[in-house]
Amino acid sequence: MPSRTDKRDQLVLGSSLTGFVIDFIDGVDAKGINPKTYPYNWNQEHSATEYACLRAHLNAAQRIVQEGLRTALILEDDVDWDVSIKPQLQTFAHAVRTLQNTVYAPTESPYGDEWDILWLGHCGASCKTEQPFYMIPNDPTLPKPTHLPTYYHGPPENVRPDSTRLVCTLQDAACTPAYAMSYRGAQRILAALSVNPSGFADKVQTGDQIDLELGRMCKSGLLKCFAPYPALAGTYRSAGLSSKGTDQSGHDRAAQIEPATSWGLVYSTMLNIKHILQGERVVHSTWSDVDHPVINPEDIHFESGYIYSCRPEHDSNPVSTTEKEVVNESVFADEASFTDEP
């Protein structure tokens, strides 16, 4: 929301220290919503604030289509990311292109062209198991299992070693702190969630919160979606009252002051702002029991990944084939990145 100048401060500063620029889209105030804008099938059990959040995401999709942007990264206002976000995304881009079979094909996007949503930040993601996974072993930016945030769902058990991050064709996901949207994806989202939801009723149930809507569109095949698991983006709350992290609750002055907290990231950008601004060559981990509690970001490297395919359910032994080639290319979209503030 425009009134949350504190959150704009943290996004502008954090992005400036990790090498990208944010373009803001205002959040939507539930009090100012015209009732005629609600889709015909909106679930009336949801609050006006939840619809305002949905509308803010639709406004981002509208801008992508209006300005003809090929891709845009949409960030919610409490997002956090690892200080190594650029090499992380280089590895992720190679993984997504491998899953699209476009590693060597010329494409406009470094992530390939056959996608609608890249769900980079989430609180749970399930994979389409009939499609192969891309495994990134010994990821130094992957939290230990005891430090992972609560994920509502994930890939099949025993598929992913604790030190491995996987990338998969997405079946469903929850929460939207960070995701990329393509031009084609933005068109389909506007059509299904605003312009003509009745026309897509045979493909996807709509009328709910934005993350449920997008997840169902991924599951139905209306959107082609990919995601990392665990997520690449996390969330952050600066020091203050617990209500500071959300605009959906009041301001309780009697509550206890809580410390700054980041969830889901080993080398949080927000928690390392002080170290970076002081000119330190190293950053500090969120937890002390990691392999490298203090590290120079230039020393964070990622191993070559490999394809992992699940056999039919009656055969529990997986088949993996190594993919040795890694594409060394910049993976930030050339167009503006957006942050919406539901």
TrEMBL record:
GO molecular function, one term: transferase activity
Residues that span the membrane, as ranges: none
InterPro entries listed in its UniProt record: Collagen_mod_GT25, Glyco_trans_25
Keywords attached to this entry: Glycosyltransferase, Transferase
Keyword Cytoplasm: no
Coiled-coil segments: none
Domain Glycosyl transferase family: 19-192
Pfam families: Glyco_transf_25 (PF01755)
Family (UniProt): Belongs to the glycosyltransferase 25 family.
PANTHER family attached to this UniProt entry: GLYCOSYLTRANSFERASE 25 FAMILY MEMBER (PTHR10730:SF53), PROCOLLAGEN-LYSINE,2-OXOGLUTARATE 5-DIOXYGENASE/GLYCOSYLTRANSFERASE 25 FAMILY MEMBER (PTHR10730)
Listed name of the protein: Glycosyl transferase family 25 domain-containing protein
Species whose genome carries this gene: Penicillium brasilianum
